């Protein structure tokens, strides 16, 4: 875990320096384009986190093992953090490039609504402790992910403005290597840091559960 | 089927005797229509005002879904029926209450917002029914989810509204199209989305209700 943390921070410093200093400035967008090096890794990490929430919620309801619940909680906290980062960096980029802080684009809408759903998840965790709260939260964790395609679909019915994917697309990446490499480094850095923090939070929750068990056993 | 009717009938009979849910939900809905109209929402925003009203009415009424069982929730869960049936019965009772509220508030919408509600009523029934179902399937599942938590009245809207958003967008879209006098085919995509939402969350509710209520 400590190794992951050190590795994550080192990669992050390295990747950010590359992205902010060494990478070429984009011709049309200018310096604000460098926000991409934060925005894209943040959103991909957020989706990884929410995927973990979904899978571990299903496993928790199916197997009834508390460790899946603790994993879901840790992933949801980090998920909300990275979704927040995505929304803030996206908005900061949108102002100079699109001329607006916000627009009701399919991806923006989906991300914002996911933020609300998983903040609700965390509120249930805080207000409804114990087995019942854990089960209630697991249902929200599952419903939130199932809702993603529907939110996306409904927002397309509104309209769309977001740039089309330039990296993950069937024809291969359209981004030049001078930009793709720092982006990849930052992505790996984000994921490593996420894994480190996830492990840390799961361990904390494990310790807490064991402590509660000992205290209740002693009473 | 008989069990389902018994369960849903029990809730509706309780509601008929007390009229707690329909009156509180209906009054809030009428109030919201009046407030929105007085605040200056005009003909153009009629569909949005309509669905905001129904969504808030639903979040108020559906917190009572399992509260009406009072101390008998365990008895209900011990009933020798499939747990999924309890979910369906509760959903039917909720939907029925919401439909009454929708029907009761339509004249007020017609009077304060737009009279084209009356000329397009048959087509309008489609988004009203599908959207009402969407609110009911999600509201009933979340009603079960919050039943045993603190602060459930606060929690339900916070949890339900973001999940409901796609259904509300589609319902407002379909209602707008129909009130503009477009044929049903023009709002096909919105109606499909509503149908998909209903089916997805009805299935999710059926599957998850059992594990949610536990032993």
Describe this structure in words.
- The complex is a heterodimer of chains A (219) and B (215).
- Chain A has 219 residues and is mostly helical.
- Chain A has helices at 2-22, 36-63, 66-98, 106-127, 130-158, 177-218.
- Chain A is globular, with a radius of gyration of 19 Å.
- The mean pLDDT of chain A is 87.
- In chain B, helix 2 packs parallel to helix 5.
- Helices cover 80% and strands 0% of the residues of chain B.
- Chain B has 215 residues and is mainly alpha-helical.
- Chain A binds chain B through residues 61, 109, 113, 116-117, 120, 123-124, 127-128, 131-133, 135-136, 139-140, 142-144, 146-147, 150-151, 153-155, 157-158, and chain B through 138, 141, 145-146, 148-151, 155, 158-159, 161-163, 165-167, 169-170, 173, 189-190, 193, 196-197, 200-201, 204, 208, 211-212, 214.
Order of helices and strands of chain A, N to C? Answer: HHHHHH
The stretches of 5 or more residues of chain B where confidence is low (pLDDT under 50) are none
> What's the tally of helices of chain A?
6
Q: What structural class should be given to the helix and strand makeup of chain B? A: mainly alpha
Using the CA coordinates, give the radius of gyration of chain B. Answer: 17 Å
Number of strands of chain B: 0
Largest pleated sheet of chain A:
none
What multimeric state do the chains show?
Answer: heterodimer
Shape of chain A: globular
């Amino acid at each position: 875990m400590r190794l992951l943390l050190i590795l994550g921070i080192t990669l992050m410093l390295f990747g950010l320096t590359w992205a902010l200093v060494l990478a070429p400035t984009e011709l049309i967008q200018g310096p604000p384009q460098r926000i991409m090096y934060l925005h894209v890794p943040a959103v991909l990490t957020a989706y990884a986190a929410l995927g973990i929430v979904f899978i571990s919620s299903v496993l928790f309801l199916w197997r009834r093992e508390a460790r899946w619940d603790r994993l879901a909680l840790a992933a949801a906290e980090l998920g909300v953090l990275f979704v927040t980062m995505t929304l803030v960096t996206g908005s900061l980029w949108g102002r100079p490039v699109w001329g607006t802080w916000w627009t009701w684009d399919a991806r923006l809408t989906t991300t914002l609504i996911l933020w609300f759903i998983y903040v609700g998840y965390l509120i249930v965790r805080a207000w409804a402790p114990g087995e019942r709260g854990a089960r209630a939260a697991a249902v929200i964790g599952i419903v939130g992910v199932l809702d993603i395609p529907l939110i996306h679909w409904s927002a397309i019915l509104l309209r769309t403005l977001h740039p089309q994917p330039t990296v993950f697309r069937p024809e291969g990446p359209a981004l030049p290597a001078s930009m793709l490499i720092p982006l990849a480094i930052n992505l790996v850095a984000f994921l490593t840091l996420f894994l480190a923090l996830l492990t840390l939070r799961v361990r904390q929750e494990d310790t807490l559960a064991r402590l509660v068990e000992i205290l209740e056993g002693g009473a | 089927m008989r069990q389902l009717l018994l369960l849903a009938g029990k809730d509706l009979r309780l509601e008929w005797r007390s009229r707690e849910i329909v009156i509180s939900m209906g009054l809030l809905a009428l109030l919201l229509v009046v407030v929105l109209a007085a605040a200056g929402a005009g003909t153009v925003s009629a569909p949005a005002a309509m669905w905001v009203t129904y969504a808030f009415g639903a979040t108020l009424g559906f917190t009572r879904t399992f509260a009406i069982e009072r101390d008998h929730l365990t008895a209900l869960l011990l009933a020798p029926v499939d747990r999924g049936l309890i979910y369906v019965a509760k959903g039917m009772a909720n939907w029925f209450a919401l439909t009454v509220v929708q029907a009761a508030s339509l004249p007020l919408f017609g009077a304060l917002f737009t009279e084209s509600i009356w000329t397009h009523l048959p087509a309008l029934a489609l988004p009203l029914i599908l959207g009402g179902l969407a609110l009911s399937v999600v509201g009933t599942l979340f009603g079960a989810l919050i039943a045993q938590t603190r602060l459930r009245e606060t929690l339900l809207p916070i949890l339900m509204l973001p999940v409901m958003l796609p259904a509300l967008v589609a319902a407002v879209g379909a209602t707008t199209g129909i009130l503009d006098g477009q044929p049903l085919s023009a709002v096909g995509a919105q109606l499909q989305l509503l149908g998909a939402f209903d089916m997805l969350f009805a299935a999710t509710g059926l599957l998850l209700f059992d594990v949610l209520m536990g032993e």
